[in-house]
Design a protein that fits this description.
The structure is a homodimer.
Chain A lengths: L1 H16 L5 H10 L6 H11 L2 E4 L5 E4 L20 H4 L3 E7 L2 E6 L4 H11 L4 E6 L3 E6 L5 H9 L6
Antiparallel strand pairs in A: 1-2, 3-4, 4-6, 5-6
Chain A binds a DNA duplex through helix 3.
Chain lengths: ~160, ~160
DNA sequence: TTCATAATTGTATATTTATTCTTGCGAGCT
DNA sequence: AGCTCGCAAGAATAAATATACAATTATGAA
């Protein structure tokens, strides 16, 4: 849906520039931008964006974005995201799983850069990485399935 | 007050080892540990600890600690432990568990020093470590609980 | 197109969380 | 001792947020 995506964008914009302390407040800001929706929908949007209600400077509550970058899980919509340079040349060769560990093999010297980008996304499915020269080890969250890990990584490694 | 501080400690311990999705749930866990309090008090505790309700891997809500660093507001108790240089600057940021592995994130370049110190102690709970630039992975002994690991690490990382 | 399926949303409501108001307690003071 | 100040906490309640359900709308396959 076109409406929803631009609304999510608007939410991100607002939250990154203003101090919003409640959903109702955010609802008002969105209304100013011409978005008409209910608190229920907003709650769902925030959940999807993984926005959290945090505690700001004066002890006041504040909604904050947690993701450096957005990644859409299952592209319900075609929605061609722009492709970053990382995706162009990530050196990815293979991935294998064992227990709660995944091992990615890369071309020589690519591992640490790839790990850096994975870390950056702070996928909840991946609690940490460690890299050698051509190998990245991922520790997978206990609740995460391998499919979920692959989907998450696809943001960075489309050719996975 | 002594009670409150140990309760805050307990909250941190619980949140760092379990998936807690509501205050009531946390209240139950605290009850198991012998803490008796109401939701109102817990809400205030969480606010003080700047715990946020976030979204975990399965789309489930989860309370997470935002500040790995401990801060006691009022030095109610003198308790001035001598602080070693390691403790001064260990670069510790966060710790997460999955299976028998713990992942510690540190400030850039701190990981190997921290791992070195952990190795040095030869904690029976930790059978080995491996470090990158800002990540230390710990392999946990089969018999060791996560609480035990945290307690052990507290020797080196008081702000854990 | 038409049907089936999945996604989006609102309404109403349940659930959850924050806060107001009050009491009790202990430290430090005179 | 009595007094005050400030923190801690519970009870009750307000406020905020999540969700079950139903209706609508989009998407895709044949």
């Amino acid at each position: 849906m076109k409406v929803k995506n631009s609304r999510l964008d608007a939410i991100r914009l607002i939250l990154s520039t203003q101090e919003i302390g409640s959903q109702e407040e955010l609802l008002n800001e969105l209304a100013k931008e011409g978005f008409k929706l209910t608190q229920a929908t907003l709650s769902r949007d925030l959940h999807q964006l993984r926005v959290v209600k945090s505690v700001g400077v004066q002890g006041r509550y504040r909604y904050v974005l947690t993701r450096p970058h957005q990644y859409r899980h299952e592209g319900t919509e075609g929605e061609m995201r722009p492709v970053s340079p990382v995706q162009e040349a990530n050196g990815f060769l293979s991935i294998k799983f064992s227990g709660n560990i995944a091992v990615i093999h890369t071309k020589p010297s690519y591992a640490s850069t790839l790990a850096y980008h994975i870390d950056n996304y702070e996928f909840p499915e991946i609690i940490g990485t460690i890299a050698g020269d051509d190998t990245v080890m991922l520790i997978i969250a206990e609740e995460a399935s391998r499919g979920a890990v692959l989907r998450a990584l696809r943001t960075i490694i489309p050719n996975i």
